[in-house]
């Protein structure tokens, strides 16, 4: 029988808060023992003028050493953010294509769920300071909405765990 707790590492990376005027980057999440990371952004009320860019970042360790943002101009990284899913009505998810490895949360995302999936096998390598590193750590970065209200929380679900236990080992340090 499938058990969510035994087969998924749930990482609460941002507790529900009002992000007014504040950008954030999640904890650095180790992808060494997982096949996939799924970020779930839960959005509450946003003002009509709030807009904030969502970007993935990679690093070589849990401290974010040599971190690199994934952008369309980022030929220095093999990972690309190509799509995400957003609830349209109720619990129905609609896929949205991303053209520049980043997208904006706007008031059209108000009271929605945003889902971003990243496969560990596609993270590949990245270049920082002329050195190539294996991209083993992942973070989600959300820009400031400016001086506008934005209620949000973010969780990350790691699946395809290499070491399945009653309680999977930590993915953040």
Structural notes for this entry:
Helices cover 2% and strands 48% of the residues. By secondary structure, it is mostly beta strands. A hairpin with a 5-residue loop joins strand 7 (83-87) and strand 8 (93-97). The radius of gyration is 16 Å and the shape is globular.
Layout of strands and helices, then pairs:
Elements: H1 4-7, E1 8-18, E2 24-25, E3 29-30, E4 36-46, E5 51-59, E6 68-69, E7 83-87, E8 93-97, E9 102-106, E10 113-119, E11 125-128, E12 131-134, E13 137-142, E14 150-159
Antiparallel strand pairs: 1-14, 2-13, 3-13, 4-10, 4-14, 5-6, 5-9, 5-13, 7-8, 7-10, 11-12
Short description:
Helices cover 2% and strands 48% of the residues.
Descriptive key words:
6-stranded antiparallel sheet, 1 helix, mainly beta, 173 residues, single chain
Q: What is the number of E strands?
A: 14
Radius of gyration: 16 Å
H/E topology pattern: HEEEEEEEEEEEEEE
| Uncertain ranges | none
Shape, principal axes of CA atoms? globular
Q: Average pLDDT across residues?
A: 82
The portion of residues forming beta strands comes to over 45%
